[in-house]
Amino acid sequence: MSVAITHGLTIAITGVLLIGLLNASGALLDSQEERISHDQVSEINGDILSHINTVDRLAANGEAASLNVTLSYPDRIMGSYNYQVDLRGNGDPAVLEVRVPRLDQSITRELETKAGIDPAQDSGPEITISLCDGSITLGGCS
Q1: At 7, is the secondary structure helix, strand, or coil?
Q2: DSSP per-residue string spanning 46-82
Q3: For the chain, which terminal residue's Cβ has fewer other Cβ atoms within 10 angstroms, N or C?
Q4: Strands across the sheet with 94-100, in order?
Q5: What confidence tens digit (pLDDT) does each residue in 31-70 have?
Q6: 58-102 tens-digit pLDDT
Q7: How far is CA 81 from CA 6, 35, 102, 109, 113, in A?
Q8: CA 110 and chain centroid, separation
Q9: Which residue range forms the structural domain that includes residue 109?
């Protein structure tokens, strides 16, 4: 074989291997991004749920009280994506959902509270959990 053919084959094989490597690394980065965003959404959901349970315990003492707890979180998931927090009490049981519409991701957890739930929405970076006339809501008392 001539030197030119050998060099040509070497360059072609190297190119094919590099293309395969770049494709594989792109898929790996996409799956890592999805995992990290899911972890962030799950962490925010769990923390808000914990604070709602604390507010519910405070409401269970039987005294009429109003209370606001403001929680600070990152303003975006992975630095790029806005998220929405939904508190829904229409069903039994009530649910807390944190969702990232642009990533088509959400984490929903059931709430078991003694206090009533007033459905509401809030968005980061500051989420306010409120106890208003014996009911838990987001965003403050109206």
Answers
A1: helix
A2: HHHHHHHHHHHHHHTT-----EEEEEE--SSBTTTB-
A3: N
A4: 105-111, 94-100, 84-88, 120-123
A5: 777 888 888 889 999 999 999 999 888 888 766 678 889 9
A6: 888 766 678 889 999 888 887 778 899 999 986 678 899 999 888
A7: 49, 14, 7, 21, 30
A8: 15
A9: 3-138
pTM of the model: 0.76
Mean pLDDT of 13-17: 89
Handedness of CA 93, 99, 105, 107 (dihedral sign): negative
Token pair of 122 as six digits: 């809030």
Side chain identity, residue 100: V
The first and second tokens of residue 115, run together, are 């206090």
The set of residues, in sequence order, having a beta carbon less than 8 Å from that of 138 and lying 6+ positions away, is 85, 87, 120, 121, 122, 127, 128, 129, 130
Average pLDDT over residues 116-137: 88
Number of domains, the chain: 1
Closest CA to 43 of 19, 86, 77, 80: 77
One-letter amino acid for residue 38 of the chain:
H
Residue closest to 79 by CA, chosen among 36, 126, 32, 29: 36
